[in-house]
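Narrative of activities, Objective 1.

The group set out to show that a structural description can be obtained from nothing but a protein's sequence at a throughput compatible with the screening campaign. Below is one input-output pair from the validation batch, recorded exactly as produced.
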Amino acid sequence: MIPLKDDVPSSSVPFVTVGLIALNVLVFLYQASIGMGGDPRAAEAFIFEFGAVPCRITGACSVLGEFPHPIATIFTSMFMHGGLFHVAGNMLYLWIFGDNVEDTLGHGRFLAFYLLSGVAAALAQIAVHPGSHIPMVGASGAVSGVLGAYLLLFPYASVLVLLIFGFFVRIVHWPAMVVLGLWIVVQFVSGLITASAAAAGGEVTGGTAWFAHIGGFLAGIILLFLMRPRRGGRL
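Output recorded for this entry:
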């Protein structure tokens, strides 16, 4: 299921959304250029240096030199990604749903909203795995906050979706509540599976930071109530 566009028009130019997408793409291209330099360890070192490593942030482990500061990596990690599909998926969702949230909040509030959602997402994942040595990267948590806000703002919107099941390919219109509802269910179930595996003694060594997605989504809902202009104003 790949969302293509929604039917909610925007009354302003979403230059913050476009700027965030551009910055994420530029950082990813830089990451890719490091990987093509011939030394795969350089690309891995970049991820560990600027990704958000939970044990560094909680103080459970340390890195020589501590640059950048562990708190700063919460922000730098939001603009890094683990691969082409990772960045493409996040930017697609941000492009489709971000413009309307930005239109509602105003440009300045939306930028603060996006960053705060990303911070909340990282903290949620760190709370679950405080001693993890695995760096978190990606805009997924911040984008999850955007999706949470969108679901509250436009529950009756319609989304054009590309469905692919084997050889079956079809473009359909689905309610935004269904599209984002399915996304929520996947995040929640995956988070429970991860937590169950950890509780049973299984070691979580990588993959998707599901609790960051859930934390970002819930943060987006809360932040919308706190930051939405009371009289329809814009920043």
